[in-house]
Amino acid sequence: MGLDSKGEQRIGLLNGFAAYGMWGLVPLFWPLLEPAGAAEILAHRMVWSLGIVVIALVVMRRWAWAGPLLRQPRRLGLITVAAATITVNWGVYIWAVNAGHVVEASLGYFINPLVTIAMGVLLLKERLRPAQWAAVGIGFAAVLVLTIGYGQPPWISLCLAFSFATYGLVKKKVNLGGLESLAAETAIQFLPALGYLLWLSSRGDATFGGEGAGHAALLAATGVVTAVPLVCFGAAAIRVPLSTLGLLQYLAPVLQFLLGILYFHEAMPAERWAGFALVWAALSLLTWDALRTARKSRTVLREAAAVATAATAATAATAATVAATAAVEAAREAAAANPTTAGGTNT
Q1: Which of 220, 196, 222, 199 lies closest to 209 in space, CA to CA?
Q2: For the chain, what is the radius of gyration of the CA atoms?
Q3: What confidence score (pLDDT) does residue 169 get?
Q4: What distance in Å separates the CA atoms of residue 23 and residue 207, rounded to the nearest whole number?
Q5: Residue 195 · residue 46 · CB < 8 Å
Q6: CA 204 to each of CA 56, 193, 200, 201: distance values in angstroms, whole numbers, following the listed order
Q7: Which pLDDT tens digits describe the chain residue by residue (347 residues)?
Q8: Omega into 35 within 30° of 0, i.e. cis?
Q9: Of 109, 95, 90, 96, which is closest to residue 47 (Cα–Cα)?
Q10: Shortest CA distance to 166 belongs to which of 104, 107, 116?
Q11: Which of 116, 200, 275, 309 has the fewest CB atoms inside 10 Å of its own CB, making it the most exposed?
Q12: Cα–Cα dist 255/119, whole Å
């Protein structure tokens, strides 16, 4: 069992690295789709993602969720909201990368955990630990520093962070698996996206089919680029602890940040470095607090299990003593009721 558990965790870690690694390297992919604009790329991503996900569901025979979902209007409404927010997130991200704002886009995913915590306080009335309050405060200071440096708020980062945090909040309420959720969301996105592509084609502005087979294949590959990391993430989520996934999630924006500086050669003036340094300090504090809390929780659980085991053993011993006493009393009563048998036994 131990070897199997270690093997499963190893598989989970590999899938986690693969998922976040692909998400981190995806800025290399979107420029390959030019001269298609961000809106056309987004529409193709929606259309082809549905096709890939449907094939995956057919192969895996995972259709049982669809029937009950169609009979739940509230959940369908939440999935529609999720589809809308992820559409905004995908569209802004694709535009940002192709417009030369990779570093600012990476900042959005760096501050996303801080935005998620803030939304938990404001919308769900969650109570924060002191370290979490400090992290949120440092994150707010980072946004102020970046606003001063840019001359305006970092709208791309904020839009990405808030849209993805909202998406995560809605998905938590919907409570569907990653693949199933993507299938439902892209099913909602499919008709508007297809209609937009047909409209582009009717105007002669579509690049699909007009820029060669290679370009068409790359546009179709947007479905694979969307679905494969999600499948890897799903495989990781069921095999590794959430604390490990929480650490792995920073791999994607780190890779995006490095690509923005080293590959796309985006400018990093001093004020931008200062803002990023504050964000990283906030995330370090947040991570330290999460690990410390998880460690305390594990200690409490181990102690509770030890107490429960001891209590169970004590209860079993008491029950055995009571049973033995009852048996002795029953034997005495039987002997008293049948003196002949008692005498015979003695001889």
Answers
A1: 220
A2: 29
A3: 85
A4: 25
A5: no
A6: 33, 17, 6, 5
A7: 444 677 788 888 898 899 899 999 999 999 999 999 999 999 999 999 999 888 888 888 888 888 888 888 899 999 999 999 999 999 999 999 999 999 999 999 998 888 888 888 777 777 878 888 888 888 888 888 888 887 888 999 999 999 988 988 888 788 777 778 888 999 999 999 999 999 999 998 889 988 889 999 999 999 999 888 888 887 887 787 766 777 788 899 999 999 999 999 999 888 889 999 999 998 888 888 877 877 776 676 666 556 555 545 555 555 556 555 655 565 565 545 444 444 443 44
A8: yes
A9: 90
A10: 116
A11: 309
A12: 26
CA pair distance 220, 208, nearest whole angstrom: 9
Question: Would the CA dihedral through 195, 198, 204, 205 be positive or negative?
Answer: positive
Query: Which DSSP category does 127 fall into?
Result: P
Q: How far is CA 337 from the centre of its chain?
A: 73
Q: Look up tokens 């886009």; give the residue.
A: 105
Residue whose tokens read 């920073």: 250
Residue pair 208/39 in contact (Cβ under 8 Å)? The answer is no
Token representation of residue 87? 């559409």
**At which residue do the structure tokens 């630990």 appear?**
129
Question: What tokens were used for 347?
Answer: 């001889």
The rounded distance, in Å, linking the Cα atoms of 335 and 333 is 5
Residue 211 three-state SS:
coil
pLDDT at 131: 84
- 339 — phi, psi (to 5°)? -65, -30
Whole-number pLDDT of residue 341 = 40
How many of the other CB atoms lie within 10 Å of CB of 279?
A: 24
Burial class for 82, CB neighbours closer than 10 Å (0-12, 13-18, 19+): buried
Q: Is 40 within 8 Å of 98 (Cβ atoms)?
A: no
Given the structure tokens 């500086």, which residue do they identify?
A: 261
